[in-house]
Amino acid sequence: MSKVKAFAAQEVGALLKPFEIERRAVHENDVLIDIEYCGVCHSDLHFVRNDWGMSEYPLVPGHEIIGRVVQVGEKVKDFKVGEKVGVGCMVDSCRECSSCEEGLEQYCERGSTFTYNGPDKYLGGMTFGGYSQKIVVDKDFVLHVPEHLDSKAAAPLLCAGITTYSPLRYWNVKKGDKVGVIGLGGLGHMGVKFASAMGAEVVMITSSPSKTKDAEDLGADHVLISTDEGQMASHANTFDFLMNTIPVGHDVNPYVSLLKRDATMVIVGAVEPVDPVHCGQLIFQRKSIAGSLIGGIKETQEMLDFCGEHNIVCDVEIIDMQDINTAYERMLKSDVKYRFVIDTKSLEREN
Ligand code: ZN
Ligand code: ZN
User: Fold this and answer.
1) CA-only gyration radius of the chain, Å
2) Does the domain made of 161-291 have the CATH classification 3.40.50.720?
3) Residues with CB under 5 A from ligand 1 (ion)
4) pTM above 0.70, yes or no
5) How far is CA 138 from the centre of its chain?
6) How far apart are CA 262 and CA 284, in angstroms?
7) Where are the domains of the chain?
8) Which CATH homologous superfamily contains domain 2-159+315-349?
9) Chain segment 240-253, per-residue pLDDT in tens
């Protein structure tokens, strides 16, 4: 076992402060990773504030981890010391249920082990995430990250990236499809990049006309202002697929009216109730509203390889660990383009 520096919340809603944690000894299937960067996800803030009622403290967030392998267990053949690797939202699962057998560990019927705030099988207590210097992870939950991708900008691919890539694949988005991405934040900006790389005609749907240029710079072909009823009406029943990244409850009905017959809107942002849905819209045109959670390990690797091939990374702002509390404040105001990423070397400054 080894002690490493981290930042933790000690109680509900507390500021994050320096905290020392234990990492387990490297077992035969384990990879010890020296963390270089960790993205800051909205879920981190939800867990710190116990918004979902399942947080346990002390809590060390962070599930968009990029680093280098420093040691491997004797049964690890696939990862070499010095290699660039990533860890996302999960570090383990039951590996036996039908979801795990299909490579959909995120839907593990016994619950996958989250990278932080999940029951730690090895040390007891809860797992600690990437706001730390090192992490030990079973090889089956470690990802290869293409060397030529910028590490700091690649970190958020491990959550924001796979969250938006997976539904585009599952609903078979292809060249020429008209795809709407609702909301321009950490998730939305990746949705635009992926859909556009897959050859779709991409429409950014936002309530803020001020985001038009940013959306076009990211690759959106058009921008649709959701508060403009005339514009919304002119796009009614025309979309093959919609990805809704709005992070809070809202009225989804105006978006459903944009879908073609048989088309789906997937919700990836709001892990909470939305306003009542008028099912007439669903019934008369056989439309669907669905949800989707990150992606399995195999698909996460496929997404990273796709990013390597198409040179896709996230737009990020680098911060020191010590700036995390200010970053949370700014994130609440959507004052970031589009993801904060912690340079974990800054942890060396603390004791
Ligand atoms: Zn996340
Ligand atoms: Zn399982």
Assistant:
1) 20
2) yes
3) 41, 43, 159
4) yes
5) 20
6) 10
7) 2-159+315-349, 161-291
8) Medium-chain alcohol dehydrogenases, catalytic domain (3.90.180.10)
9) 999 999 999 999 99
